[in-house]
ABC transporter ATP-binding protein
Amino acid sequence: MMWWREMAFEHGAAARRAHLKVRGLSAGYGAFPVLRDLAFEARPGLTVILGPNGAGKTTLLRALNGLIPRKGEVLLDGDDLPEKTHEIVRGGVVLVPEGRQLFPQLTVLENLELGGWLVPKSERSARIEQVLADFPKLRERSGQLAGTMSGGEQQMVAVARAMVSSPRLLMLDEPSLGLAPRMVDELLAIARRIADSGTTVLMVEQNVKKALAVADRGYVLERGTLVASGPAKLLARSTVIRETYLGAQSSETTTAARAARDAVRDPNAARPEPVEAPRQARPERIS
């Protein structure tokens, strides 16, 4: 049995597809800046943020989720995104963090129940029942301690827990990290089906090839700055991805930012703003 059912997920978000728009976002830890003047959008569908370790991908999601201070404009459907985490969750934005962060001594069902902590009690049972219908294998494991499950199984619980709140925007932080290839395929397929069912998905990933295969749009983040963006299928064929992340050879050694300058611009994509750094290359968009 697969972890999820073949039918589209039913979570009530399809009528309110979220559109996240970010302008001039900066964030970091204390006096140490990590993100500098980011500008991007997460439209209805699945948007992926790519980049190497240390690029600032997790910091980006933490800033959007209110876990660290941020500067700049963050709009959800035209309204300012709150700064406090519980208000962000109440507004329909939910993060599945890196490392899953389940409660290992609680059962699968108890972990799912915690995902509905802001859901009215009158709706909580129905939400959990719906998630168990969407993830039928979790119903079989509902009494199992989360800490006794494999990493991939725990990741499924973490995604299901997030869906209990019926998010409008689901943020996934490195969902494939440390998982077997088969489980990676299943998780990314689930992310795609969630997006197709009406929840906007913003995912950060290092598995470039597989992430772009399921995404609608993508951005490349390097050292806290966006260096390329575009439709996922075209971005996968671009120089910035093939040379820097997929190991394609080039006769000219180039950085991702220089490679991106050779791509065709996408006039409809969100254009990142220039950063305050000497001779900083302007991010390019691939159409």
Summary: The first helix runs from residue 57 to 64. The domain at 19-102+168-285 is CATH 3.40.50.300 (Rossmann fold). The CA atoms of residues 117 and 165 lie 8 Å apart.
